[in-house]
DNA sequence: TTAATAATGATAATGATTCTCGGATAGATG
DNA sequence: CATCTATCCGAGAATCATTATCATTATTAA
């Protein structure tokens, strides 16, 4: 992976935590203020390569655009159907599910993602 | 909801269980054999209205096309990253997750979906 | 400095899904 | 039965997220 200021700035932006569960388009908008000539393809490319390198995570959300997360620990997501905000939550039964899948159907899980949808506190 | 032979045939096809976790495109291909003049928009429209009516379920799969399920009971899905096959599995901790979300962040979950990805028995 | 390689930005292409349209049809009413 | 109207249909355009292509530029190792 070769250095580029685009990649560097994207990683810094992600790590800053200024963006909350941003989609690629959100990162693009924020990056435009830092590097006005950046293209959307470069944003996608770099988010993908940073994710491949394990420096950030790309998370597929059912029915919505993927989000990118600077947090690397195992956690799940709850999405408010009204405001769209994404909340992190912990639920450490991944091992239990993996074991069950292995025992019952011989399925070797590499990743387990739980996604809750509903209404957040503010929207109720 | 008005009757139409397209909707009727789509529901029959779904209920027959001949299709395994089909995407809209799969339903379209199968329906072409039954009603050769059917259009893809009609397939989407009817799958959506049948899902709205609670007769089938539309399930968003992270990173992939939505699938439609004739099974109405609560279950989760495991997707093989190699062959793409989708497996059903049960894991009745939904209530536990709901309660935790409610207690910790005041989030009222209406649906919880867990999606495992990895390798199925046949692909290992 | 140079040559090889990988990254860039613009834009075209893709895939899934929805929207729009004029025309057809189901089902209620007279 | 005749008619009316809401809903549905099929075709194709439009949308959205994402990836691919390509000519140009920047990085890096020699």
Descriptive report:
The structure is a homodimer of 124-residue chains. The first copy, chain A, has 124 residues and is an alpha+beta fold. The first copy, chain A, has 2 domains: 5-69, Orthogonal Bundle (Arc Repressor Mutant, subunit A); 76-118, Dna Ligase, domain 1. Helices cover 39% and strands 22% of the residues of chain A. The first copy, chain A, has 4 helices and 5 strands. Chain A has helices at residues 5-16, 24-34, 40-52, 94-105; strands at residues 57-59, 67-69, 76-80, 86-89, 108-119. Chain A has a 3-stranded mixed sheet, with helices on one face. In chain A, strands 1-2 form a two-stranded antiparallel ribbon. In chain A, a hairpin with a 5-residue loop joins β3 (76-80) and β4. Chain A is globular, with a radius of gyration of 17 Å. The N and C termini of chain A lie far apart (46 Å). The mean pLDDT of chain A is 96. The A-B interface holds A 59-63, 66, 78, 80-81, 87, 89, 91, 93, 97-98, 100-101, 104-121, 124 and B 59-63, 66, 78, 80-81, 87, 89, 91, 93, 97-98, 100-101, 104-121, 124. Chain A binds a DNA duplex (30 and 30 nucleotides) through α1 and α3.
Assembly level: homodimer
- The computed structural class of chain A is alpha+beta
Main sheet of chain A: which strands, in order across?
A: 4-3-5
Count of discrete structural domains of chain A: 2
Kindly state the percentage of residues in helix of chain A: 25-40%
Mean pLDDT of chain A: 96
Form type of chain A: globular
How many distinct beta strands of chain A? 5
The DSSP helix count of chain A reads: 4
CATH topology of the largest domain in chain A: Arc Repressor Mutant, subunit A
Strand proportion of chain A = 15-25%
